[in-house]
Amino acid sequence: MNAQVPEAAPDTAATPDGRGRTAYRGTDVHVQHEVEQFLYAEAELLDQHRFEEWVALFAEDVLYWMPTRMTRPIRERDLQVAALGESAFAEDDLTMLRGRIRQLTSGMSWSEEPPSRTRRLITNVRVRPRDGGELDVTSNFYVYRSRLERHEDWFVGERFDVLRPADREATGYPFVIADRKIVLEQATLLAPSISIFL
After folding, report:
1. Are 62 and 55 in contact (CB under 8 A)?
2. Domain 29-184 belongs in CATH node 3.40.50.20
3. Which residues contact 61 (CB under 8 A, 6 or more apart)?
4. Residue ranges of the domains in the chain?
């Protein structure tokens, strides 16, 4: 049986954030809690290198997309993040994600052997219902990576997810991730590679 998502309260603010959304989103407390706990559980799976369990959180038709960004003047702010089909660090479907996991866990990936140590912080989770019971979920992330003895990297940005109700009894989770867009704050990455999932 699919999870029942209570109807969220309507948005109550009228101040747009420049991207067609409002800065404040009212939502049902139960829905907010379920979404946050789901995202925290996902972060834990990644930090514990439980990649097979992590990829099972994604829908069969998922798009995992991380576009590049450029520094633009104020009048061109809408163009700073690449559009779908343009330059991207990742533009993966589920098959490609599974392939990346096979490579990551093979012991043959030079950038992850020995593996990185990571810690993910997920904050500012905003939820908005969409038609069909799905949820638009926006969150901020900070990912710290430590590798070998002295190497450190930080990845900071915003994620735009579409969560779809799932059969909790079958999967153990209330949602699957039907779509994920990852927007990094950095225009130029100083990290030598993006060999982890964000």
Report:
1. no
2. no
3. 93, 94, 178
4. 29-184
